[in-house]
Amino acid sequence: MAGDELVERVVQAVAGGIDLVQLRDKILPGGQLLELATAMIEAIGGRAKLIVNDRADVALAAGAQGVQLGEEGLPVAAARMSLGDDSLIGRSVHSLAAAMQAESEGADFLVVGTMYASRSHPGEEPAGPKLMREIAEKIGLPLIGIGGVTPENVDELIQAGASGVAVITNILAADDPKAAAQRLKDVLMASWNTRRSPADVGNGDG
Q1: 128 in a domain, yes or no?
Q2: How much is the pTM?
Q3: So what's the pLDDT on residue 3?
C-alpha cells in the first residue's frame, strides 16, 4: 500500500474512533519511515497518538508519542532513555515470562499475541485468549490483543483481560476504514460494559 493511501486510510480509521496508531514497516529505510511518520502525525492532527514499531530514533525525530518494541527489540530502559519519561513504551510478548520481564523493566503496556490466525503474522501458532487470561491474572499493565482480531472475537479477548485490541487487516483492508473502525469501537465499548474479571472468567462465574 502506497504511503499516501496508507495515511488516508489511517485518517479514516481515526475518524471512526481509533485512538492509538502503530506505524510498523520493517523494510522501509529510516529516512522514508520518518517522512511517513511525520505525514501521519500531521494528518491525524492530535486526534490519536502515534507510536513507531521498534525505531525509537524515528519516533523521536518525528515527534511520535512512543514506540512499540518487539519481544527481542531494544530494552525498555534504552528506549526510555532516548524518548523520555513521558513517552509510551510498549513491548510485544508471547508468554507470561516475557510479560513479567517487560513489566519489571518498566513497559507502559503490552501487546499480547498471536491471539488468532493472522495474515500479518504467518507461521505463528495462535495462543488464543488463554494466554491473555494467564497474563491478565499476573500483570497489572494494560494488555492489547493482536493477531486475527475481528469484531466477532473482540468480546472474548476483553473478557479474558485485554484492555484493547490491535487491528490491521480488518480496518486497513476494508472498503470503508471509518465504518470498520466504528464497528470495532462499538463492540469494544459494549464488551467493556459487560467485562468480568479474569478470575471470574477462569472460574466460569458470571
Answers
A1: yes
A2: 0.90
A3: 84
